Amino acid sequence: MAPANTMRIPPLPLDEMDPEQRRLANLGADAVVQVLARAPELMRASSALGGFLLAQGTMAPRIRELTILRVALRCQAPYEWANHVPAALGSGATEAEIVALSDPDAVWDSEDAAVLRAVDELCAEDVVSDPTWAALASAWDHAQILELLFLVGYYRMMAGFLNSAGVPVKPGQPQLGVCGHPESAVPAPVATRPRSGKTGVTGTWQLTFTHPAGSKELILDLTTVGGTVRGSIYDTQLEVTVPIVSGTVEGGQVDFTAEVTDPARFDVHVSAIVDGDVLTGSVTIKGGGTFPVSGFRRG
């Protein structure tokens, strides 16, 4: 059965959301959040489990995202597919692997094959067969297998919600079974600014973080002490300041980690090169992939 072709539950307008709901919407998948906001307690409970599976689980990001995409295929869930193709690419999956998910004759290594068979069996029969369980158990411990079962269950649930509520795929997003070429694969442009004459990474930086869910404008404050980095990242959209918890600098190379706690909990790692007044690099979201960031010195 095809997904509903119209939105059956109207999205809650952003100006009618509470601050927590707006921050969740601004993280990405805004259409999902705006529909779920009609049932705020359900949204909080669902977001907590989804956030754990994406950011705090133990599955390697690549196989986790391939698992989600296989669920989307088996459940014929176009929105789920469209929003996880960029995450899969950012987590190390190749375009060829994503396309191969639709190919019944595709050849996978033994661990990937066991995981994908488990997805197929759960979606078809609600049980993992003995041979597939044995293959999983030869590579994974019980905790990892449990996480896989819950991941498949969570995204089957989300597929049923998305298809039934009629949440649409946005223009330009990959169609079901197609890899596409997400915008995030293109480095973010760097604005042209006059040179300040300053050197080093210490200072205030205005950055653009390019992500499939939408670009973000960030303000990065950095100070360096004895080869270490201190400071914070301010998300102008979420209006949230995230402290840097650890980092190093060597010449123009800076690497640091920040812990996001609001509106969801996850770690981000930034690796960048500073050349005069220009910063270019990448942001790795734990469990969510790696995406480009760039910008210029403000002060």
TrEMBL record:
<dbReference type="Pfam" id="PF02627">
    <property type="entry name" value="CMD"/>
</dbReference>
<keyword id="KW-0560">Oxidoreductase</keyword>
<keyword id="KW-0575">Peroxidase</keyword>
<dbReference type="GO" id="GO:0051920">
    <property type="term" value="F:peroxiredoxin activity"/>
</dbReference>
<feature type="domain" description="Carboxymuconolactone decarboxylase-like">
    <location>
        <begin position="40"/>
        <end position="113"/>
    </location>
</feature>
<dbReference type="InterPro" id="IPR029032">
    <property type="entry name" value="AhpD-like"/>
</dbReference>
<dbReference type="InterPro" id="IPR003779">
    <property type="entry name" value="CMD-like"/>
</dbReference>
<protein>
    <submittedName>
        <fullName>Alkylhydroperoxidase family enzyme</fullName>
    </submittedName>
</protein>
